[in-house]
């Protein structure tokens, strides 16, 4: 089956947004992507969120996740979405509960692909399907039992020792060389548009250098990214995304009307608004996907139209969005977040920038 969307899971760890942005009693504009950022932030903060994405199928996935949260128990939602394996074969039972919260158009879409996503919809994206192939190879090389021992370690220091002893292998570096070679990764792992600024960047070496932090900077037992990608499922309930934990689900059910999903680009949301009432912006790695001029226009729009003091969190892999054209836009940039947030970022493959904009009186 051809992939249905680019991302089943957002690689933006909402722990970072929750730390950098002042979210309570505020308005946030963010990318929808796989839904982890808006859903987890609403699970933890009393905020209003608008999540946009140019892909209608990404929005459909986000709404399916929200429906699962509203209609299923935490453990059931984790199985239905694909974070946990469906040992009891209850997926279709959960599906029949969830679709009642969707529009007729959304139900028609998911019914069309129902038989293809029985292991959970998050597993049927371009990125997850691509990465899962190489993660299976890693499991074979390292051994599933040995990896399970890693996830049962009780301290960061023990994880570091374990990584240095068992996981720092040349063969892993060569797997990175293959998986992130531009010719293979482009189109198969990511849309070609995501790599327009990649030329000259050695992705394999860059990602491999951050691989150790992925394993050792945060507790493995609570890192759903690490568990899901490496083992094929989230091993521990405490490691699930916050929106799938009992407290998070309770909050989301109370705050569901504070969340809006729309098929739209961030650029169109900014350019099409006369006034921007967002105190917070989570812009992910937009600068990797768009031209320098488009990114400059986006930042200029926020600068000109923001009528409140605002804070932006920006990620990037290939293209730093900060350039000389932003000098007079009134932003204070802090590009050194990565190191200070290392202990909470469960997916540490991005560079991070905080930008603070003081509104004009």
The CATH H-level homologous superfamily of the largest domain = Vaccinia Virus protein VP39
- How many structural units, i.e. domains? 2
Overall outline: globular
Low-confidence stretches: none
How much of the sequence is in beta strands?
5-15%
Mean pLDDT equals 94
Described by strand count, sense and barrel closure, the largest sheet is: 7 strands, mixed
- What is the CATH class name of the largest domain? Alpha Beta
Short description, anyone?
This protein is α/β, with parallel strands linked by helices and 361 residues long. The chain is built from 18 helices and 7 strands.
Any overview of this molecule?
With 361 residues, the protein is of the alpha/beta class. It has two domains: 14-124 and 242-357, 3-Layer(aba) Sandwich (Rossmann fold); 126-239, no CATH class. The chain is 48% helix and 10% strand. It has a seven-stranded mixed sheet. The termini are far apart.
Distinctive features:
about 350 residues, 18 helices
Please give the structural blueprint.
Layout: H1 14-20, E1 27-31, H2 36-44, E2 48-53, H3 56-71, H4 74-81, H5 91-98, H6 104-113, H7 126-142, H8 144-151, H9 156-167, H10 170-179, H11 182-188, H12 203-216, H13 224-231, H14 246-255, E3 259-263, H15 266-271, E4 280-282, H16 286-289, H17 292-305, E5 310-316, E6 331-334, H18 337-340, E7 351-357
Parallel strand pairs: 1-2, 1-4, 2-3, 4-5
Antiparallel strand pairs: 5-7, 6-7
Helix pairs in contact: 1-2, 2-14, 3-4, 3-5, 4-5, 10-12
